[in-house]
Specification:
Largest sheet: 5 strands, parallel
Number of strands: 13
Distance between the termini: 42 Å
Length: 171
């Protein structure tokens, strides 16, 4: 497609399933929402639907805003040019295979995550063949079940950093 850049205005609350799927020319996505008041983020919560940016092979820059609360299944799958994804502390739910077939080599999972979807034993980081390092944010007290699960054993993760605040893994 001819779309190269998208700015998501602060009025948007949902990016529905497959909204930008296969926009192969898309290089940059910016979320315009900004706040200094954490309670505003709850009122203005934004959900990224399943496969919202699936197959955007030239997507290399994305800045998620602090009102994103859910990243659906396959959201950035097959975004081969994507090398970095900063998950904001407002996100509480991660779908499965969110960064499969991207160029992301390291990711930090924020302490706000309370749910990780994992049907067929594929967790949020399944299929992320470039992923070498997973960092769980300091302050996490438990790691969700299947967060690193991959049913086809494609994980190339070499290093997992779990903070001393974690008292439970899985469950």
């Amino acid at each position: 497609t001819g779309i190269k850049e998208v700015t998501i205005p602060s009025s948007v609350r949902t990016i529905n399933d497959s909204a930008f799927s296969s926009c192969t020319g898309l290089e940059k996505v910016d979320f315009a929402y900004e706040t200094e008041d954490a309670s505003v983020a709850v009122r203005d919560a934004l959900t990224l639907g399943d496969s919202a940016f699936y197959g955007c092979s030239y997507l290399s820059q994305i800045r998620l805003s602090e009102n994103v609360t859910e990243i659906g299944n396959d959201v950035f799958r097959k975004c081969e040019s994507l090398k970095e994804l900063i998950i904001p502390g407002s996100v509480t739910r991660l779908g499965y295979c969110i960064i499969e077939d991207t160029g992301i080599s390291s990711i930090t999972i924020p302490k706000s995550i309370s749910y990780a979807n994992a049907p067929r034993i594929n967790g949020p980081l399944a299929g992320a063949s470039s992923l070498k390092e997973v960092i769980f944010e300091e302050g996490m007290t438990w790691l969700p079940s299947y967060i690193l699960a991959s049913d086809d054993y494609t994980s190339n993760v070499e290093k997992v950093l779990i903070p001393g605040t974690v008292t439970s893994i899985g469950g």
